[in-house]
Amino acid sequence: MNDGKSLRIMVVDDTVVYRKIVSDVISDIPGMEVVGIANNGKIALNKINSLKPDLLTLDIEMPEVNGLEVLEVIKNDFPELGAIMVSTLTRKGGDMTMKSLELGAFDFIAKPQSGTMEENRETIKRDLAPMLKAFYRRKEIKELLGRKSVHNQAFSGGSNKLSGEFIRRGSIATGKRARSEIIGIGVSTGGPNALSQMMPKLPGNLGVPILIVQHMPAVFTQSMAKSLNSKCDLEVREASDGESIRSDTALIAPGGKQMKVVAGADGKSRIVRITDDPPENSCKPSVDYLFRSLARHYVGRATGIIMTGMGTDGTLGMKLMKKNGATTIAQDELSCVVYGMPKESIEAGVVDIVAPLDRIADEIRRVV
Q1: Residue-wise burial string across 35-69, b where 16 or more C-beta atoms lie within 10 A, e elsewhere
Q2: Does the pLDDT at position 217 exceed 50?
Q3: Within this chain, do residues 312 and 210 fall inside the same structural domain, yes or no?
Q4: Residues with catalytic annotation?
Q5: Residue 133 and residue 175 in one domain
Q6: Which H or E run includes 271?
Q7: Based on the domain organization, do 133 and 212 belong to the same domain?
Q8: What is the pTM for the complete model shown?
């Protein structure tokens, strides 16, 4: 990818309108090339060997062979081939989308439910363009690492931290921090798959609550909570406004809303508030929005975790948490689908622990 080669993309959708819209959006982005189209999964699978795409935009609900079935095949037969799912905003679409992300899809976009063709094109461009660029960058980095057998150069800007290395800093190394009474997690691209690997490693009697912000539209967060709950010993559900924060329960911020912690009526207990406050960092829900409230209501008694994702959301909130005595953890580069949010927090100097995905659950158990 460093030689100027375009990212080769096949558009797979059973609706001619969306094949046209997605193809046009891709063609307008520098470095992206539509190498073919297919109107169902069976045709797409038959074209992979000849077209040699790097990435599929893959409609989930299609006749003959649907998007999930295509994903199962490419996971086994074409492991380097990426997929961005195109989903409908329905409960069924949400459940299928969660399954696709857990199978390793890079990310997903939601099909607009109304508007003109031009309006839908702008919506899809807004959502799809940053994902394509992030996938391009990820592929570029993987090729760089493969050629040079060097870890952590492209995203670290020359840092001497080797990707995959476990790092613990400052008072954390000497065990001087207080026990955490709540865990806050912020995650974006790659999050559902990462959470589905990490959360089941936590015991059902963890002893503290967990609050999670996953950048995701409404409907999909409910499907994610349902999926995680089926895999975990902890109870996992989408948060409701005004509910008490309880140990051994993980609450996920509803898509399209903001979630924060406030004091209960007795002044001692804590509850969650689900609000319609504006987006922050173009995100709703926002990690910063949640983390600020954790910093305020759990001074010196909280842990903030930033995992895989695009953008900068979470860094300012993490900074405030650290200032107020929280333990801060970031996922390492090698195990991230996109090393954006963790990188920003690490480079801002607000992270105590850098850990690979398979060690984050161990760190949570340690701090509580």
Answers
A1: bbbbbbbbbbbebbeeeebbbbbbbbbbeebbbbe
A2: yes
A3: yes
A4: 188, 215, 313
A5: no
A6: strand 270-275
A7: no
A8: 0.86
